Amino acid sequence: MTQPQRVESLSHAQRERLAFIDFRLYFFGEIGRPDLIERFGVAPAGATRDLALYREIAPQNITFDGSNKIYRIGQAFSPLFEHASQRVLSALALGFGDGVHGPSAKPLQPLLPCESPTALSNPKMDVLAPVCRAIHAKRPLAIRYHSMSSGESERVIVPFALVDTGLRWHVRAFDRKSGEFRDFVVTRIEAPTLLDEEPQPFERPDNDIQWTRIVELDLVPHPRLARPEIIKMDYGMEGGSIRMRVRAAVAGYMLLRWSVDCSPDHRLKEEQYRLALSDPLALYGVENAKLAPGYQAPAAKTFRKG
């Protein structure tokens, strides 16, 4: 049986514990029985069996330091599991856990010294939970909403997706009041109530043109920079650019979050603009393109009669 087949034959709980061993070796260079006991609540004998099983499957990855009674990373280490960068960074910054803690439980701690920007906008769980239930059940949701343009109003929306803009969370939904698909900021929602009815066909996400349309964006180092090769390193650019395919409904948020100069002549000179949109015309027809730094809608052409 090959190594991948051996791993796949294990139970889900065993794979989780072996993935944790793999993680600790990869990013900390060592693991001991107490690490497994604390993380999973297993007995000492169970932790010993897990370490022995990992050593049996990937002997090149792990060595035992008898004098210190700890397992260390092997010189020929090759990860047994795939470790997605966002999950790894989240674990390092926030600690491991499923987010469910009793009133007396200790808060999760970073695994390494790590500072992250403080989130200034956090949805309330008693609002987010019914929004999520409505998305899952494909049901309309009655809400009280506070809009910057029209103030407080009662609405019925048909939500189908959450959107993280990097600054706050939105829910994408059909709005029965305006008859359009729109973004609703979760922190501005109050008193959400699920309605026991089916959405109309025109309220479903496959009719949301901005959601279903995929926009292709080519991001390049900003032309004003003297050392574009460093920006290529920062973003892991291949072929000198980042080619992205994103939903039109989120394109403006993404370009704003990453401070991408979307002006026609890339004239934004401030320090935060390290990237530029190669072809601003790629945003033609994108409703939230107005959020993109420097973006200008193409001027309408006029034609003279001959």
From TrEMBL:
Domain of life: Bacteria
Transmembrane stretches, start-end: none
Pfam families in UniProt: BrxR_CTD, WHD_BrxR, WYL
Domain DNA-binding transcriptional repressor CapW C-terminal dimerisation span(s) in chain numbering: 214-279
DNA-binding transcriptional repressor CapW winged helix-turn-helix domain ranges (all copies): 14-83
InterPro entries: CapW-like (IPR016634), CapW_CTD (IPR059020), CBASS_pafABC_assoc_protein (IPR051534), WHD_CapW (IPR059019), WYL_dom (IPR026881)
WYL domain mapped to chain residues: 127-193
Full protein name: WYL domain-containing protein
UniProt source species: Tepidicella xavieri
